[in-house]
Amino acid sequence: MGLRQDLAEPFERRAFGEEMDEVGGEGRFPPFDPAAAPPQEQKRKPFPILHLDELEIGDDPTWLINGLLPATGFGIVFGPPKNLKSFILADALFHVAMGRPWMERDVLPGAVVYITAEGVEGFKRRLIAMRRHYGVEGQRTPFLLVPATLDLGHQSGDAEGLVEDVRAYLDTIGNPPVRAIAIDTLARNMKGADENTAKDMSTFIDNCGHIASALGCIVIGVHHAGKDTAKGARGSNALDGGVDVMWSVEKGEAATTATIHHMKDGEAGASWQFRLQQAVLREGGATSEFVAAAVVEILAGPGEAQRPATSAGRIKLGDRPKLLLTIIREAIGEMGGGVKGDISIPHDARAVSREDLKRYLPLRGYWDEDKPSNTNRATFSADLKTLKVRGAIGLNSEYVWFGQDQK
After folding, report:
1. Bridge partners of 259?
2. Residue 140: what are its φ and ψ, rounded to 5°?
3. Cross-strand bridge partners of residue 194
4. Alpha-carbon distance 299 to 276, whole Å?
5. Among 15, 287, 312, 333, which has the minimal tally of Cβ within 10 Å of its Cβ?
């Protein structure tokens, strides 16, 4: 009986005593749980509104490379395949990492992150060649290579992951400020998204914007040109609307020309010419193979390209550029006039559109009928750039002109 009471007493207390506590006395209501409380209405955060007289010029830097690349935002370097786009971008950003002027333009020094999963071993050799060519062996120049492919064509989390990993790595090398993220190529880092649709391209641009904003830098994608290089990069028009800067790159027989195709808050049309020179990394021998890479040699910088010639008639040119210059004179004489609303064209210049100029080319024997049309177009574009570099003409993506000192 005693054993039974010992077993039954706890049960009776739980069955009746505790049940009574739940409906009366101090145990009538369960303890308050804040998490179970109904959500209170959130007060909307007001939008910022600034009066005109409150606006001030900020201290944030404007340029990564003075006049050529903005310090923040989103940019594109585009051109046909194998046109040395990656070479010229890497050379420019290598100077940022070194803190040295590029083509006599001041740079904003800091760390550079270059993302590529294509031709990684070859790109490593290029970086070693640049490291030796510019004499920075062992100096811990903050140029960082990420040999991987990101998915920036979807909301995959890769943008956030990159920001997190870059910050963690920079913490191990003294936290230099990030100045640029290069994504080579745009298409490979969209992971199956369609670059021709506005939706997918906008997602890519938004992801790049997130990276740029989080790290306080510019994000630059390497991309292919469309069928007509003059019309810009391949894919949706959302790309044209979303960029702050675009460089186009066109390879010629003797040199390659890079041009500022678009600049949101600056002047477009500046161009420069370069070529590659070989850098031997290891001499071949009985037990080792010859290893070489290439580095960029600038032939004519944008400062030289913009310097007017004292007399266009005294410029020494090849036969085809000379013929093109004659045709331009004729076209401007017959169809040229002033252009309003384009700050890159002097107010006193007479200009002709590039499309109107093309009508004269077959009539004046400039087109080579034995060559395909795309080859003729490439030659035309290269000769225009040559004339601009030599100071014979003014040039942007839409017009060709003569200023007072070029007539």
Report:
1. 248, 271
2. 60, 45
3. none
4. 10
5. 287
Backbone angles phi, psi at 346, to 5 degrees: -55, 145
In this prediction the pTM is 0.65
The closest of 276, 279, 274, 275 to 133, measured between CA atoms, is 279
69-70 vs 63-65, strand pairing mode = antiparallel
Using one digit for the tens of pLDDT, what is the confidence trace for 162-191?
Answer: 999 999 999 999 999 999 999 999 999 999
Dihedral of CA atoms 327, 250, 261, 393 in degrees, nearest 10, equals -30
Nearest to 276 by CA among 91, 65, 68, 76: 91
Give the sign of the dihedral formed by CA 162, CA 164, CA 169, CA 170. Answer: positive
Residue 175, CA distances (Å) to 90, 94, 147, 179, 211 in order: 21, 18, 21, 12, 17
CB 245 within 8 A of CB 69: yes
The band of 276, judged by pLDDT with boundaries at 50, 70 and 90, is: very high
DSSP state of 313: G
**Stretch 86-114: mean pLDDT:** 97
Task: Give the helix ranges, DSSP H, for 354-403.
Answer: 354-363, 373-389
How many whole angstroms separate alpha carbon 182 and alpha carbon 217?
11
* Cis amide linkage into residue 185, ω under 30° from 0: yes
How many Cα atoms are found within 13 Å in the side-chain-facing hemisphere of 45?
Answer: 1
pLDDT-based confidence at residue 344 (cuts at 50, 70, 90):
low
Residue 306 has pLDDT above 60, yes or no: no
Top mean pLDDT of 113-117, 239-243, 380-384 is at: 113-117
